[in-house]
Design a protein that fits this description.
By secondary structure, the protein is an alpha/beta fold. The protein is built from 16 helices and 15 strands. The structure holds 3-[O-phosphonopyridoxyl]--amino-benzoic acid.
Length: 442
């Protein structure tokens, strides 16, 4: 084929992630550009972003300070090696992230996604115990309905069946806490449900079964996002922390969604007043503008690794693009913007408005439950007989094509998580349009 042959502009070559490819390619939902709270289709139709992309564009889209920082960085330094060399922005960003994290969560390891960050945290946990002479602590405890990305580590500790069942035997030595959701006890809750703290005690049962000396760490999302917005029951995280302390288990909070303002604080650890040993982050750190993820570890964990000869690498782990200059520049600009516009406090102030607006959909056809926490909402729809997930999928399609609103669909749940710059009026619009889509699929 001559090099100049035109490439047909069809959609077949791209095997799309987490998308029904055939349905999409028959009727695509294409995005051409974005600004602040809106996406624009190639035809110029304006779609309200009810989901901050995939829970990541917390500062809104194409914000000038972030765009400018990326442009400047690309002109100045495109890449420098992540191993054995460094550039100044990585330290600047790490300091800013550490300053936002509570207590002595001060040591920041960079990756490029939430999935990589989860694997990193799990590996640090195993290596940490090894360094302390407790190499027998190899088990990892996750939770049913947990989502920790799609690496083998993440799907092993994760608890979403479809993400696991096709992929073999996964990591050995993993066990799971029960999910915290119970519709009978919790339906239509704003914020943290009153019922369910006792489910943390299941960790006692798991420890009794395997013995503490074999367990390295427990990983949970403080608020489970992907599985449909499940806020932690009141007191649940405190109990997990206490049991981890009792048995010397590391507690890892996966804050890929909850980090950077989603729940009205820099991190959920702050909202709940519970100190994990590590925080996993991604998404909001760059407001989605450049891929980045990372792990924040407590000082003691970092210090445990800082022995041996001076010239020897302490942790055999890292990625070519760890602390990539463009990601670090975007991250620094993003965190500055969050501070300048006080966006975490804004999310906190909007939480009751958002919750009230969400609950106006109670009583709409097929709505079984609505849950809200921070600027997140999950709406469970009754499935169509014999076709699990179809109604929610149709509602997402109708929302995009007919109601000009972007929503996320996960199984039978619609999820909303707008950028933190959303106005009160736009919150009203989001739920009005989602209501329209729900009625359209009645
Ligand atoms: N942990 C958590 C808690 C997440 O929510 C990941 C890890 C993995 O991050 P990466 O960057 O590898 O995708 C996530 C990602 C959705 C949705 O709509 C959620 C995620 C990603 C895409 C869609 O629920 N969360």
């Amino acid at each position: 084929m001559p090099a100049t042959a035109p490439i047909p502009n069809d959609l077949e070559s791209h095997w799309m992630s987490f998308t029904p490819n055939r349905a999409f390619k028959r009727r695509p939902r294409m995005i051409a550009r974005a600004k602040d709270m809106h996406y624009f289709t190639p035809e110029g139709r304006k779609v309200l972003d009810g989901t901050a992309g995939l829970w990541c564009t917390n500062a809104g889209h194409n914000r000038d300070p972030i765009v400018d920082a990326i442009k400047r960085q690309a002109e100045e330094l495109d890449y420098s090696p992540a191993f054995q060399y460094a550039h100044a922005k990585s330290f600047e960003l790490a300091n800013k992230v550490a300053a936002l994290a509570p207590g002595d969560l001060n040591r920041v390891f960079f990756c490029n996604s939430g999935s990589e960050a989860v694997d990193t945290a799990l590996k640090i946990a195993l290596a940490y115990h090894n360094m302390r002479g407790e190499g027998g602590r190899t088990r990892l405890i996750g939770r049913e309905r947990g989502y920790h990305g799609v690496g083998f580590g993440g799907i092993s500790v994760g608890g979403i069946v479809n993400n696991r069942k096709m992929f073999g035997s996964l990591l050995a030595g993993v066990d799971h806490l029960p999910a915290t959701y119970n519709r009978e006890q919790q339906a239509f809750t704003k914020g943290e449900p009153a019922w369910g703290a006792h489910l943390a005690d299941e960790l006692e049962r798991i420890v009794a079964l395997h013995d503490a000396s074999t367990i390295a760490a427990v990983i949970v999302e403080p608020m489970a996002g992907s599985t449909g917005v499940l806020a932690p029951p009141k007191g649940y995280l405190e109990r997990l922390r206490a049991i981890c302390d009792k048995y010397g288990l590391l507690l890892i909070f996966d804050e890929v969604i909850t980090g950077f303002g989603r729940l009205g604080c820099a991190f959920a650890a702050e909202r709940y007043g519970v100190m994990p040993d590590m925080i996993v982050f991604a998404k909001g750190v760059t407001s989605g503008a450049v891929p980045m993820g990372g792990v924040i570890a407590r000082d003691g964990i970092y210090e445990t690794f800082m022995r041996g000869p001076d010239h020897a690498i302490e942790l055999f782990h890292g990625y070519t693009y760890s602390a990539h200059p463009l990601a670090c520049a975007a991250g620094v600009a993003t965190l500055d913007l969050y501070r300048q516009e006080d966006l975490f406090a804004r999310a906190k102030a909007l939480e009751p408005v958002f919750a009230d607006a969400a609950m106006t959909l109670k009583g709409f056809p097929n709505v079984l439950d609505i849950r809200t926490v921070g600027l997140c909402c999950g709406i469970d729809l009754a499935s169509r007989a014999g076709s699990p997930g179809l109604r929610a999928y149709e509602a997402m399609e109708r929302g995009f094509h007919e109601a000009d609103v972007m929503v996320r669909v996960a199984g039978e749940t619609l999820a909303l998580s707008p950028p933190l710059i959303v106005s009160e009026a736009q919150i009203g619009e989001i739920f009005e349009r989602v209501g329209q889509a729900i009625k359209a699929v009645a």
